[in-house]
Amino acid sequence: MATADIETVQSTLSPLAPILIRSYIRAWEDWKSAGYLHWRPRGRANFVWEQAAHYTALGLAEVPGVTVVLHNESYHFLVNDTVSFRLKKADSSGFTSNYPTQEALAFHDPQMPLTGVPAAQRVEVTYSLNRTQTDLRDIAVVAREGDTIAWTYSLLLDNSVASLPAASASTPAPSESTGRTGLVRRKGQNDKTDEAGDAG
């Protein structure tokens, strides 16, 4: 099984983008209105993930060709038996923080089968926060090759293709002052994974 093909993923997910964007925005608004200021980042990430997954499942329930797969206490969204995606919180370069279970490793490794999720194209639809953790920074689609980002593109911005050096989860983070580029970023930017415990 090869790495997810960006053209296939973009054409498949493009019709769903408004639902995905709206789901994350609603989830973040729910978090802000809840007033749980004493919660730690991990709790916040879990809260936003639960709400976003709920809204996405509701929004896609009547969309032809979309199946919601509840697998190991997580949601996998299967589109036309071709693309599978899951929702995650990411850092500014698209890396997510996962406890290295067999399933998490398999999802990021296109050479490994993923039980119950037959799609060959596996990606994450992620949200990231601004530097002060007070608002959504981006909503993006990310394809991984193990601990390296193969490519990523924003659902919020106009996109064009650019080649960038390979990045892995262990490389240092860049300054966030450069902001979003709106580019399809092949082989990712340098950054590190979120701090331990900030999953979602």
Write the layout of secondary structure elements.
Blueprint: H1 6-13, H2 17-34, H3 41-60, E1 66-71, E2 74-79, E3 83-89, H4 102-108, E4 121-129, E5 136-145, E6 148-154, E7 160-163, E8 183-186
Helix pairs in contact: 2-3
What fraction strand? Answer: 25-35%
Radius of gyration: 16 Å
Reported for the largest beta sheet, the result is: 8 strands, mixed
Report the end-to-end length measured between terminal Cα atoms.
26 Å
State the strand order across the main sheet: 1-2-3-4-5-6-8-7
Indicate the percent of residues in helices.
25-40%
Q: What's the rounded overall pLDDT mean?
A: 76
Structural class: alpha+beta
pLDDT below 50 for ≥5 consecutive residues: which ranges? 159-199
Question: Can you write the helix and strand succession as a string?
Answer: HHHEEEHEEEEE
The count of helical stretches stands at: 4
* Total separate domains: 1
Instruction: Give a count of the beta strands, DSSP E runs of length 2 or more.
Output: 8
* Shape by Cα distribution: globular
Q: Any overview of this molecule?
A:
The chain is an alpha+beta fold. It is built from 4 helices and 8 strands; from the N terminus they run H-H-H-E-E-E-H-E-E-E-E-E. It has one domain (6-186). The longest helix has 20 residues, at 41-60. It is globular and about 40 Å long. The chain starts with 5 loop residues before the first helix and ends in a 14-residue tail after the last strand. The model is unreliable at 159-199 (pLDDT under 50).
